[in-house]
Write a structure and sequence with these properties.
With about 425 residues, the chain is α/β, with parallel strands linked by helices. Helices cover about 35% and strands about 20% of the residues. It has a single domain, classed as Thiolase/Chalcone synthase (Peroxisomal Thiolase, Chain A, domain 1), CATH 3.40.47. Strands 1, 2, 5, 6, 7, 8, 10, 11, 12, 15 and 16 form an 11-stranded mixed β-sheet that branches. A two-stranded antiparallel ribbon has the order 3-4. β11, α10 and β12 form a beta-alpha-beta unit.
Length: about 425
């Protein structure tokens, strides 16, 4: 059984909403820049993927608004967008006990840093009594449920950069099990603050020494020297096809299958042979009832790191052969939004299926010989496809792959 995507909410460095984001990914509108003046990460990163500031009071009321983490704010905005896009009002269009919410992400560490510094400066009375409910990893999901009256299954995932894709996979599992008719699933990340950015910078994982910030993220290119840290949120509304048809809703595409594995290799480094990622892709295809030859496009994890891009290339060659389906990484424009990347890239893959347009990898000027394959480079590829694969791989060796296919609802939509 598949789950139809009837709603999408996106807030990324390249824009907000389905139309704006997918257009940017196709035409090469980069969301990467030097940090705005006075930004908390200005001393820690040369380049980042930033989204506009949002007043927390627009989505959270009362004293809690002063200590709610940005991850909660971004999650609330994109969940509202996704539900509106799906045309769903809880209690009217779906039973409150038959809709769930699953949100991934690392949690509210930026607000925790702020409060720890305040305590150091002014003592224990500086710590807000609302801190805990502002930073817990389950708070984005909980706040979404509270705001929209969602009374079904609720959960959060902390599987690093795979967490958003894993939330989508679990949304599909929840619908297949018969425990929900609708699931809001995705991720929200706000990692651009001092301590968190510094740990990546000190590990020399971030792109550096780029005069042009828009050139800093370059997956599979010979000149890549690290990823670009970015913030953002993405939510999908997954719906049982029969439920969507009964209310006359149109679907973008289906989440048809998923796979998940663990490298069991190293806390940060992927297996060089890509064996864990390859097995993950195989499982996703088997779960979807497809063969490798059925896949018309792969949205790669492709972070623009030396080791990661090579390992993923090896995994793709193991599953599809060197001359496999067209591959691209949209992180060249968005940067790496950690867990959110998997949701945004699943949405991009769904839209590629729906529209017959494959977004390319920008900044791929000279292909690394260690990354052979059928790369879509710098120009969108118009190609009708039935199935796409989206990869997300996280620290700890967490691997998740999603299969996106043509919508099974009676009414189709192109976004």
């Amino acid at each position: 059984m598949s789950a139809t995507i009837t709603g999408i909410g996106l807030l990324t460095p390249v824009g907000r909403g389905v139309a704006e984001v997918f257009h940017a990914l196709c035409v090469g509108k980069s969301g990467l820049s030097a940090p705005p003046e006075g930004h908390p990460a200005a001393a820690s990163v040369d380049v980042g993927g930033f989204v506009p500031d949002v007043d927390p009071r627009t989505v959270v009321s009362g004293p809690a608004a002063s200590v709610v983490d940005r991850t909660v704010v971004l999650a609330l905005l994109t969940a509202a967008d996704a539900l509106a896009d799906a045309g769903i009002e809880v209690g009217r269009d779906v039973d409150p006990h038959r809709i769930g919410v699953i949100v991934g992400g690392v949690g509210g560490m930026a607000m925790l840093e702020t409060q720890v510094l305040a305590r150091g400066d002014r003592g224990r009375t500086a710590v807000s009594p609302y801190l805990l409910t502002g930073i817990l990893p389950n708070m984005p999901a909980a706040r979404i449920a509270i705001t929209h009256g969602i009374r079904g299954y609720s959960s959060s995932h902390g599987t690093a950069c795979a967490s958003g894709a894993q939330a989508v996979a679990d949304g599909l599992r929840l619908i297949r099990s018969g425990d929900a008719d609708v699931v809001v699933c995705g991720a929200s990340e706000a990692p651009l603050f001092g301590t968190f950015a510094d740990t990546f910078g000190n590990a020399r994982a971030l792109a550096r020494r780029w005069a042009d910030p828009t050139a800093a993220s370059r997956p599979f290119d010979t000149r890549r020297n690290g990823f670009v840290l970015a913030e953002g949120a993405g939510m999908l509304v997954l719906e049982r096809a029969e439920h969507a048809n009964a209310r006359g809703a149109a679907g973008y595409a289906d989440v048809r299958g998923w796979g998940a594995t663990t490298d069991a290799h190293h806390p940060t480094t992927p297996r060089p042979d890509g064996a864990g990622a390859a097995e993950c892709m195989r499982r996703a295809l088997a779960n979807a009832g497809l063969a490798p030859g059925d896949v018309g496009y792969v949205n790669a994890h492709g972070t623009s790191t030396r080791l990661g891009d090579v390992a993923e290339t090896a995994a793709l060659a193991t599953v599809f052969g060197v001359d496999g389906p067209p591959v691209s990484s949209t992180k060249a424009l968005t940067g790496h939004m950690l867990g959110t990347s998997g949701v945004v890239e699943a949405a991009a893959s769904a839209l590629a299926v729906a529209r017959g347009v494959l977004p390319p990898t920008y900044n791929l000027d000279e292909l690394d010989p260690a990354c052979p394959g059928t790369h879509v480079r710098n120009t969108p590829l118009e190609k009708e496809i039935s199935h796409a694969l989206s990869n997300s791989f996280g620290f700890g060796g967490q691997n998740v792959s999603l299969v996106l296919s043509g919508a099974s609802t009676q009414r189709k939509r192109n976004g």
